[in-house]
UniProtKB/TrEMBL annotation:
Bilayer disposition of the protein: Multi-pass membrane protein
Origin superkingdom: Bacteria
Protein's recorded name: Membrane protein
One Pfam short name: VKOR
Alphabetically ordered keywords of this record: Disulfide bond, Membrane, Oxidoreductase, Quinone, Redox-active center, Transmembrane, Transmembrane helix
Residue span(s) of domain Vitamin K epoxide reductase: 16-157
Species per Swiss-Prot/TrEMBL record: Zhihengliuella salsuginis
Membrane-crossing residue ranges in chain numbering: 21-39, 79-98, 105-126, 132-155, 176-201
Length: 203
């Protein structure tokens, strides 16, 4: 048998490490965006006239978004949730890269957490684009990172049989994850362009 043929165990390990890198990288980027928002929020607490680093114009302004009630849905700034949550995502990613294996219950908990986070991000996106009508650059970075985190975590769990289902469905989830991720990112970008068409293209 050729040495280039990879054993199932090796393929599984390789896939796990690739997924781990994805979580580590996207989690790190989203964590950095979240911690930046926290620091900017703290500056606003100290100085209400503080101009945040992404206050570009009336339609792209983190500072303006932070003044809205949606920015502190649970009574404290939303980015604090991101700082904690994305740190967990980074930890899972690094652990997978290092070769860690987690039991089924761990992946069930991870799926629940990632799904709740994705629903929250979808709500924040809808509020920013259609209600507040002001964009926050760092928030959009978090949106962009949350999409692959959710899609690839769900695809990984489907492929591993966490939800049951026929093999062809599990294989499709793994093979088409990048298509779903790309499609969702394009949909979000399109929603921003359409909602802010007057800003981008003039009245």
């Amino acid at each position: 048998m050729s040495d280039t043929v990879q054993a199932p165990e090796s393929r599984s390990s390789s896939t796990g490490k690739s997924f781990g890198w994805l979580l580590a990288i996207t989690g790190t980027v989203a964590w950095l965006a979240s911690i930046t928002l926290v620091l900017e929020r703290l500056e606003l607490y100290k100085d209400p006239d503080h101009v945040t680093s992404c206050d570009i114009n009336p339609w792209v302004s983190c500072g303006a978004v932070m003044q809205e009630w949606q920015a502190a849905l649970f009574g404290f700034p939303n980015p604090f949730i991101g700082v904690v949550g994305f740190a967990v995502v980074m930890t899972i990613g690094v652990s997978l890269v290092a070769g860690a294996r987690f039991p089924r219950w761990y992946w069930v908990g991870t799926q629940i957490g990632v799904t709740l986070a994705f629903v929250f991000i979808v709500w924040l996106w809808s509020q920013a684009v259609y209600s507040i009508h002001i964009l926050c650059l760092y928030c959009m970075v978090v949106w962009a990172m949350m999409i692959p985190i959710f899609v690839y975590t769900t695809a990984r769990n489907m492929a591993a049989g966490l939800f049951g289902g026929p093999e062809r469905v599990r294989r499709a989830a793994r093979d088409w994850a990048w298509v779903v991720t790309t499609g969702l990112i394009l949909l979000v970008a399109a929603s921003v362009l359409i909602s802010f068409s007057g800003v981008f293209f003039g009245s």
